[in-house]
Design a protein that fits this description.
The protein is α+β, with helices and mostly antiparallel strands. The protein contains 14 helices and nine strands. The two termini are about 40 Å apart.
């Protein structure tokens, strides 16, 4: 049977999202680090000029770059197998996809790069595996690690925010742990698009690096079981009373999930609002930009307040590319369903997100996110 080739790394946050999807969808694949001659000659030229992971080469030779696009490709083929169909569950699934891939980058980078005593040897080993064989692995790995360490600072993981980041994260994993005490996945007995978004930071950085895996294993055991579950092909729900491999009936949203979102909103809402303003200011200054211009991963620095702490973090258009999916879905609902969903977002502390839009839409063209 033809296989999908997944180019990525066990260390990569975004690869974890695509890998988990392929596993749960039962799609045969092989994973490769992007260092082969075939990759450079046959895959990279089809990536739209942006070298990143994950990227897949499909069974037919098609190249798809970016985790969201990879999942979209196979969801379309499977009649949206992992997309809840009811209004509230689908809305929150789309929201958790944004939170996982964009909203938890600060703790992910903090716990990876700011604990060298625990993590350095582990990270060095993996980064060296990522270097082509004809180069000095140690030297190149150090350069790449320094670049990523500096990137962590641009996400706002600096000494002045360490206490805030750690307190928010520790409270979050305890709330997620309470949710997974009663539910194997976010919305019941099968994973959703939101689960795949959340596994991105909660596996490769926060559920695998030495410092953070120990924290999760000791303070959030059930959350750690979810991380294991998301990387296994079987449902792995035998420990739960409810054995149905489906979403909760009647569009149910557990109170534990609302409490998770209420906590995430503490920094996700101010950061998203500040990022929207920063990007919209940039768009105003670049209003003559041609259609299909690449939407770069960062546009300036957003400054926002969380409790008594000022956080400065890069403003990323990709956050709003994903967020628009939730916003557009909610706007498309019939009035009664829309009111129910808006009331739910209000209860979760996330209602303001419906107003946090960019002045210009983002789409995809030739394997890139672009300004439309």
């Amino acid at each position: 049977m033809p296989e999908i080739t997944l180019y990525g790394s066990s260390l990569s946050l975004f690869t974890g999202r695509a890998r988990s999807y392929l596993i749960k969808a039962g799609l045969p694949y092989r994973e490769r680090v992007p260092v082969s001659q075939h990759y450079f000659e046959q895959v990279l030229p089809k990536m739209g000029g942006r070298r990143s992971v994950p990227v897949i080469e499909t069974e037919t030779g098609e190249v798809i770059r970016d985790g969201a696009a990879i999942i979209d490709h196979y969801e379309e083929k499977s009649s949206q197998r992992f997309s809840p169909s009811t209004p509230k569950q689908k809305t929150l699934s789309l929201l958790f996809d944004v939170i996982g891939t964009e909203g938890l980058l600060r703790p992910a980078m903090h716990y990876r790069w700011n604990f060298p005593e625990e993590n350095l040897e582990f990270l060095t080993f993996h980064f060296e595996r990522y270097i082509p064989p004809n180069l000095d692995k140690r030297e190149m790995a150090e350069k790449q690690m320094n670049r990523m360490r500096n990137a962590g600072e641009t996400f706002g993981a600096v000494p002045a925010t360490f206490e805030l980041v750690e307190s928010l994260y520790c409270a979050l994993i305890e709330k997620l742990d309470r949710h997974f005490a009663g539910n194997p996945y976010l919305f019941g007995g099968k994973p959703s698009i939101g689960d795949f978004g959340m596994i991105a930071p909660l596996f490769a950085h926060l559920g695998r690096d030495p410092k953070s895996i120990r924290l999760m294993q000791t303070r959030a055991i059930r959350l750690f079981r979810w991380v294991e579950r998301m990387n296994r092909p079987e449902p792995d729900i035998g420990e739960y009373d409810r054995k149905e491999e489906d979403y909760l009936p009647d569009d149910e949203i557990p109170q534990t999930l609302i409490e998770v979102l209420q906590h995430i909103a503490i920094d996700f809402i101010p950061e998203t609002g500040a990022a929207a303003k920063t990007i919209n200011d940039w768009l105003e200054q670049n209003k003559e930009m041609a259609a299909n211009t690449t939407a770069e991963r960062q546009v300036g620095i957003a400054s926002f307040q969380v409790a008594d702490t000022t956080v400065n973090a890069i403003a990323q258009p990709y956050r709003f590319y994903l967020l628009s999916r939730m916003q557009n879905y909610v706007e498309s609902l019939a009035e009664d369903d829309k009111k129910s969903v808006l009331d739910l977002l209000q209860a979760c502390g996330m209602a303001e997100l419906m107003k946090m839009r960019l002045s210009r839409d983002i789409g995809r063209h030739e394997n890139r996110e672009v300004w439309l």
